[in-house]
Amino acid sequence: MEAFAIVLAAGKGTRMKSELPKVLHPVGGVPMIGRLVGKLEAMPITRIVAVIGHRGELVKKCLGTRVTYVQQENQLGTAHAVHQTERLLSNRSGSTLVLTGDTPLIRQSTIERLLADQRAHTSAGVVLTAIVPDPTGYGRIIRDSASGEVVDIIEEKDATPEQKSITEINTGIFCFDNESLFQALPGITNDNAQQEYYLTDIVKVMRETGISGGQKRFEAMVLEDPTEVMGINTPEQLEEANRAFYEHIGIFA
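-> structure tokens emitted (253 positions)
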């Protein structure tokens, strides 16, 4: 069975206070996206697609022919970004990983387990989650109280006070059944506080349209060490990521 990977790398990363695209800032001496792509290249993945936008020519210069590129002309959200890969990946059977280009510390073994989990359960999708003491700023995982199945992911700006108290958060990393992914994407709307097309809304869309539910569940895989997916949005967080890399170089390399 084929596997594909979509790497989201179109964001400006304005909080980095740099003209350089966020994903090109180095962690452990290697641009973030280059470190992530290196882990994907070591896996049996048929095609790696990078979604580029702001100063995308610099990302192309960094990665060269290691990946296939699609352009997200307007930054309309993560679901919109994934939708740009439709002409390359739709109508293909297999599994599709969706990763953010600013997660250089994620272990290859974690990506492999996520892929294996989706295949083992023939899930419509699996979201990588983490339990954190302070979930501020992250999307919250909503589970069915009886079955434990993931039924929604709520972005913080759209969350109720009760939902904000949930400490299981979305890492932004998924593995989908490829056909289910592209079947559900057109159903995502931008009816939210940011007026963006959130990939997280795919959980609700799949459930409402019958793509998931019943035997074909939407699952979650809980990450043991949230450091692997720490947010890197500011120079301070970049410094923290580099510190974590060098302190545990055998783990995050």
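The domain at 3-247 is CATH 3.90.550.10 (Spore Coat Polysaccharide Biosynthesis Protein SpsA; Chain A).
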